[in-house]
Amino acid sequence: MRLSTGIDGFDDLVQGGLLENRLYVLSGPPGSGKTTFTAHFVTQGAIDGQKSLFLTMHETKQELANDMSSFSFGFEKVLASDRTEFLNIYDSKAKRVFMPRKDADFGSGANNMTQRIVNFVNSQNIDRLVIDSTMILKYLFPDDTGAFMQFLTSLKQADATTILISEMTDPTSYSDEHYLAHGVIFMHNYLEASGMQRGVQVVKMRGTNIDSDIREVEFTDGGLAVHPDEKVQTE
Question: What is the pLDDT of residues 67-76, one digit of tens each?
Answer without folding.
Answer: 999 999 999 9
